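Good morning,

Both structures are done.
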Amino acid sequence: MKKRLLLLVPFLAPAGWGEVLRLDLASVERETLAHSPRLMAAQETTRAAEFRAGAQRSLLSPVLALDGSYRHQSEVPAFKASPLGAPVELGDNTNYSVGPAINWLAWDSGAVRGGANALSRQASARSEDVRSTETQLRLAAQTQYFQVQGAAEQVRLLADGLRLAQAQRDDVRVRNQAGAASRQDLLQAETEVLARRREFREVQTALAMGVRDLLTLMGQGKTLDLARPLPESLATLRPEGVPEPTLILSLPATASLRAEFAPAADRPFDSARPELVSLSLEAEAARFAARAAKAGHGPSVQLLAKTSRDYPNGPVHEVITQNTFGAVARWPLFEAGRVTRQVKEQEALARSTDNRLRQTEDNLWRDWQRARDRLAGLLEEAGYERDSVRERERLAKLVYDAYRAGQTPFLEVQAANLGLLQAQSQSVITEVNILSQLALLRSLSTEVTP
């Protein structure tokens, strides 16, 4: 049985809590590759292409077979040497022949060899398709993993926002009872708590959907209850009124991933991408196929040898051993342009594949450049957003202190809190986008510096 890399363990917590789902990127990638039906299909297609190339190449070898024939005829031809003589039968009612035979295509002007080379290149191209599929699956797993990390961070942020709203509501309630805050302030504080509760549930649902998508890539987790997932850091520190989690998610910090993927930003474009190598091999296969088709204008020689037990021996009703050797030569003189058209077809396919190769290389180069440009912008944005979060935290504290001093209405507190949450949320989104662009760059670049 395949080793399970997804770790599901009971969480040491009160009864009714869910399991802990521990995910690390390396395990996610391995499980995604191990499960993917798409990758398995590509692998089987490669095997089929290899078998086909081997079958074509085997036509160059002699073929040993056991030949046999049987025939029964009701009337046997007869011959009379003279009108008065007795007829002599030229055979028997029963006729058979059985024995081993060897056939060998000794010369075909390169048709079989050219076809085998074409199919061999196609098999190699399918092997490159497998590599390409693996790269795409890794990128998909990485991107989805980053999305889950971002959603988990959003849940933590909204949990902090909900705690803050609840603490401020409790403070306003005490102040209202003491006559230092109005009924309007208390209602606004209550609506703030409700808004944070709704937003918390929304991001919790988004986290559940992201985890489900990731587990589907891995082929796991069909029986897990993802109704209310929570990051591990919130399992015992849930805001007031948040129900117990059905699943606890354990993820490593994004800082370690950022360090792991950061070198990809400085790597050169990979001009030996599997997609490019595959198309190059496809073009070679078409050229070999053209050579194989062109061989149709040339001669071919087939050799054969057979030894058999035959009955009858002409007019003599006896079994004999018959040894046969022969050769068949063929040189087509007229075939209405069939071979010429087949050659032109393969040459056109080769040119078409060359153009597809150029277009694919242009597209991949564009994607690599765009990812670099996008990453540069995101890194700069991330710096601004860190400053914005820091300043909005200060602003939110100052506004609340001003409210408590009676210098500003509670509506200003709500606006400051909302601005802080939005800035924190945008910072998380930017970090996820940075990781995604780094992953894309790593998939499009090479570790070998020219």
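Second structure follows.
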Amino acid sequence: MICIREEVSAPKIQSGEDALKYWWTKIAPMPWCDQEREVCVVLCLNTRYRVVGFALVSLGTLNESIAHPRDVFAPAIALNAFAVLLLHNHPSGDPSPGRADKELTQRLSDAAELLQIRFLDHVIVGNEENYFAFAINGPLAY
């Protein structure tokens, strides 16, 4: 888990595009981020949707990554986050969600409601410009 001090200059995440930019500027350069494997990361946000920290949830294989709600929300609870956003990549470059992505998003949405932590979105990163944001294509919203 990487904690970022709450600062006015901390990145504000208000859209899937903001999340994609954060992925390429902050997450992709991390030494553990292997673009040839699925990498799943949770962004923890304050009430102004500014990033207060992020955590690696899982390193997967070429075509799958295992993420459990407990692994997604543990950093959010530790950082006293108001909201979370899940990001993961598809090494193929095609950000289209699979059945497992849809099921995970629903489980996270249910868990967030129980924990009273806002689950803003699940963004799948394809290549530098392509992404899929469940908030645009489903019930989640910023």
